[in-house]
Amino acid sequence: MEAPEVTETTPELACPIAPIVDIVFSRWTTPILWSLNEYGRQRFVELHRRIATITPKVLTQRLRQLERDGLITRTYHAEVPPRVEYEISELGRSLGPMFATLAEWSPNLAKVADARAHYDDRSRSSAR
């Protein structure tokens, strides 16, 4: 029996959710969106305090990208001193059910840790 012919395809056709994963699950996107969804409108310094491990430069880059993608809104207040606030947009809020589903899956992380430990033990045993 012959193997079926393999044809090249774009990543989007091979996995239609790949572009969504690229947008939503980049390194800092989920903590930023989570924070804005959970705590509402925030200034830059508030976001930075909540996501303490992110650098200001990276936070700025991610906020700009999220604004470009339409997932957050940036409001500039022409005051002295100027004030800028970030808020999750309706489009960003529409990701809520997906995040809720992922949160429901989180108890499985213990099973993942067990599977990794089992795999690592097996790998160490076979390397001897």
TrEMBL record:
What Gene Ontology molecular-function terms does this entry list? DNA binding
The HTH hxlR-type domain covers which part of the protein? 15-114
The record's keywords, sorted A to Z, are: DNA-binding, Transcription, Transcription regulation
Entry-linked InterPro entries: HTH_HxlR, WH-like_DNA-bd_sf, WH_DNA-bd_sf
Give yes or no: UniProt keyword DNA-binding. Answer: yes
The family database entries (Pfam families) matched by this protein are listed as: HxlR
- Name assigned to this protein: Transcriptional regulator
Report the source organism: Amycolatopsis camponoti
